[in-house]
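## Example record

The block below lists the input lines for one assembly entry, exactly as stored, with component labels intact.
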Amino acid sequence: MTALDTPAPSVQENAWEMAREQLRRTALLAELDESLFNVLGDCKKAVEVSVPTRMDDGSVEVFTGYRVIHNVARGPSKGGIRYHPLVTLEETKALAMWMTWKCALMELPFGGAKGGVVCDPKLLSPTELERMTRRYTTEIVDQIGPETDIPAPDVGTSPQVMAWIFDTFSMNKGHSVLGVVTGKPLHVGGSLGREKATGRGAGYCVREALRRKGRHVAGAKVAVQGFGNVGRNLAVLLEEAGATIVAVSDSQGGIHNPNGIDVLDAARHKAETGSLGGYSEAEDVTNAELLLLPCDVLAPCALEQEITADNADAVQASIVCEGANGPVTIEADDILADRGALVLPDVLANAGGVVVSYFEWVQGLQEYFWKEEEVNERLNEIVTRAFDQTWTLHETRSVTMRQAAYLLAVGRVAEATITRGLYP
Ligand code: NAD
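Predicted structure tokens for the full assembly:
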């Protein structure tokens, strides 16, 4: 039995196995050569680093950090850095592989990478966070660079963290290197439109999906899980376009109002009280309940594996937009497909961030910056093109949107790998 014939065990638990299983299914559909599957199914490089950090009380805490490069056949690798207590090497490898497919689907000249530090950033003071970030950057300084591997924000990291990475790398080189990291604050080489780009890209995908069903964003009922960079921006943008946002949530729980939530007002409530719960204009719901609410579009925008074999049957939305990476397990994906729900896969639905990160990298290399309308227009063009291509394959080959996206993306990376040839 070959690697291609063997389904991965316990795919619900292990993000890396889930990513490998998605690739294996694609390889079978695409009749990919076994040796190519083996090359694409592994990560090019993974480093684990120790990050000793002086805390404000004078003690020293040692954090563990990772940087994983999955594939560079189409260009330097690109991928975010996550600060979260549950970061693992396996999860980082899965996220790196997903980045490879995402960049290829968007036709960006990048491969995929991801990084992370096992920590709870909420428990660190700003000075501790800065010292930890600078030490982590120094530990991976030989891995990253504008021509090799370009980090960006992810869960738990912010434009400020990117600014520290940019500054630390630049201090090591002796001059400013704008292209080393994206998602930077505007006044140190960030791009207009980057902050909202992932939510915006997801919004374009929701718009296109509804259009294919003869519907419009205006009037659609949407539930969004996760109220961070992706979820909050998506909710605001869809509300602006006329959607009714029936529910939103953060890690502590959510709120629901079938007649619609004023998202900015809910954000104000969260800023004042520290959580969405207790908002007077809506009922409290748990995160588990939010996923099962009646709505047209469900957008899981928090963490992985939220929709599983245990709850997929009860999801009522006809469109599931994966704002997060890997929120739908493989078994849940099959259940949703059988039920006729349209899942907009993460590699398509949350690619807006990496598209504008690409724009930021280009602007940084040229030291010439674009207007926000220009950024949004080009983002719309790229995401809509990828959606069209994916939709066409989904229809012509009668495969799910995820399978179509993977067929396109894996095919492009495979083609580049074959054309470049194996070194030496
Ligand atoms: P973030 O840290 O800004 O926000 C995460 C949100 O999820 C917060 O509101 C948090 O309270 C909530 N959350 C955390 N655990 C939760 C749980 N168990 N249940 C419900 N909510 C929970 O992170 P982000 O940048 O918005 O990223 C969210 C997801 O989108 C991640 O999967 C990330 O990999 C993916 N993503 C982000 C970007 C980007 O540009 N930021 C791009 C592509 C994909």
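Residues 43-176 form a domain with the Rossmann fold fold (CATH 3.40.50.10860). The longest strand covers residues 60-71.
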